[in-house]
Amino acid sequence: MNKQGTLFYVMGASGAGKDSLLQAIRTLYPKQLLVAHRYITRSAQAGGENHVELSTEEFAQRKQQGLFAMSWKANGFNYALGKEIELWLSQGFDVVVNGSRAYLEQAMMDFGYRVVPVIVDVSAEVLEARLYARGREAPDQIVDRLARAEYYRGQCPDSGFVVDNSGSLQQTIEQFIKNYSQYQSAMPRLSQHTLPINKERLQ
């Protein structure tokens, strides 16, 4: 490969459905898109995201050793993306990451034109219902998450795109692939293909 890969920087409120979208991309399009795992100081048994669990000490050591391409703190945990994404991009692979809305500006400074911001959005009503349904946060934490989501709502750079995840996961995937194909005009237009979604694999 002789081109630089594109970094699709996925953001959205907790409960918006980023994890489901990323897992679907990983399952359905492994040859076209590499989905990076995050390193988090949160139990791997907490549910939701398929991440690499690190202790606070491990995280600090890896950060000091320069093993992270990005790192930030949110909701009481430390998050990072490994240096492997830089290697993948340099080899021409397109990469999808689960990013932080607050870290987007720094990511765009570090990776420049290669970054495509992607907002996974849902209505405030749908987000509230999902947060209460999953039962991971206390009511006051849900209020904080809803307020943070409202603060960031509509803040998508012109270089990015928004996918609405208020409906079915299949509709969300189709929106993502349609936009992805527009950034990769030299590749086969994936949005014209029938999406072979196996709902049992995505649950």
Which labels suit this protein?
Rossmann fold, five-stranded parallel sheet, disordered C terminus, 203 residues, 9 strands, single chain, four-stranded mixed sheet, 8 helices, alpha/beta
Number of strands: 9
- CATH class equals Alpha Beta
Q: Any idea what the CATH superfamily is called?
A: P-loop containing nucleotide triphosphate hydrolases
Q: Assign the CATH architecture.
A: 3-Layer(aba) Sandwich
Shape: globular
CATH topology: Rossmann fold
Average pLDDT rating: 84
How would you characterize the largest beta sheet? Answer: 5 strands, parallel
Count of helical stretches? 8
Helix content estimate: 25-40%
Structural class: alpha/beta
Q: Please, what is the oligomeric state?
A: single chain
Radius of gyration equals: 17 Å
Give the low-pLDDT segments: 186-203
Order of helices and strands: EHEEEHEEHEHEHHEHH
Q: Provide the domain count.
A: 1
